[in-house]
Design goal:
The chain is mainly beta and 297 residues long. The chain has one helix and 24 strands.
């Protein structure tokens, strides 16, 4: 009975004669040596809808299809569906079995980030699920990706800092052996910019675009953006005003009527401190000092 077969098709990427291919592999039951297979390759054309791109009948327990940039492009999610039948009785067929969808192209991991304005670094990985191919070029084969950010909802005509900072403007994906759907990878760190403004939670998109590639396959491929949500955190404030009244970051209040140069605040984690200079401004009746200068490092 062919209906009980478990073919378990799986798609893996492979370089064949320097060109990117996908390989569909499935189980070949040794107890049924005279089986043939119909392999149907399809791509996700829209959510929930597939488009057939290749069909073949074979005796082998595998099937190849090329990423040619026309019928099958980078950015496609690909499936292979396998049906088995016996040569002496073609009408008797097994139930068609689907592989898992294989995303062929460059993508970010994680696909979205939620970070806060706390100065912490977050790792963003850029990877290719297919081999990096450089036809006619053996050494230094790589894909260079230009990274950019777009602040959504921010008025571009108004000045102001970006909401996030990247550790690099571009990354290189170098040719390497494929392992568990990763054929090349690079990392970049993302940090939320502390903007000292209560501007609510903001959304920024991180984009990667291949540069300098002439071949059709890579030139037209732009991976899906990463959505980075920056959670706004209240900013600490301290004050020194009039003769001088001082309010600390935690709300403690006191007065400092002395004349001289004083350390107003100092960070214990980074190079940042503020000095104030106070001078006599009370005249003969009272001993009062006022701020007359400030220096920040």
């Amino acid at each position: 009975r062919l209906t009980t077969l478990s073919l378990q098709p799986v798609i893996t990427p492979e370089l064949v004669q320097g060109r990117v291919h996908l390989k569909c592999t499935y189980s070949h039951p040794p107890s049924k040596p005279n089986l043939q297979y119909v392999v149907l390759w399809s791509r996700l054309s829209s959510p929930g809808k597939r488009e057939q791109i290749h069909r073949e009948t074979t005796l082998e327990s595998f099937s190849y299809v090329e990423m040619d940039g026309t019928n099958l492009r980078l950015g496609d999610t690909v499936f292979c569906t396998v049906t088995a039948f016996t040569r002496d009785n073609p009408e008797q067929q097994s139930l068609p079995e689907d592989s898992k969808g294989f995303y062929a192209g460059i993508k970010f991991l994680p696909e979205s980030l939620q970070i806060a304005e706390d100065g912490k670094e977050h790792i963003l990985t850029v990877l290719s699920t297919v081999p990096i191919a450089c036809p006619g070029q053996d050494d230094s084969c790589k894909i260079t990706l230009q990274l950019s950010t777009e602040d959504l909802g921010k008025n571009s005509h108004l000045p102001g800092p970006p909401d996030i900072a990247l550790s690099a403007c571009q990354v290189d994906l170098l040719q390497a052996p494929c392992s568990e759907s990763c054929c090349a990878a690079a990392t970049v760190t993302v940090t939320a910019v502390t903007d000292f403004a209560q501007d609510g939670n903001r959304v920024t998109h991180v984009r990667a675009e291949p540069v300098g590639r002439k071949d059709l396959l890579w030139r037209a491929h732009t991976p899906k953006d990463v959505k980075v949500t920056v959670r706004d955190l209240p900013t600490g404030n301290c004050y020194s005003f009039t003769d001088p009244h001082i309010i600390t970051f935690d709300g403690w209040r006191y007065d400092n009527y002395k004349v001289g140069t004083f350390l107003l605040c100092q960070s214990v984690s980074r190079t940042f401190e503020v000095h104030v200079r106070q001078w006599d401004c009370g005249g003969h009746r009272s001993a009062t000092a006022c701020n007359c200068g400030v220096a920040a490092w």
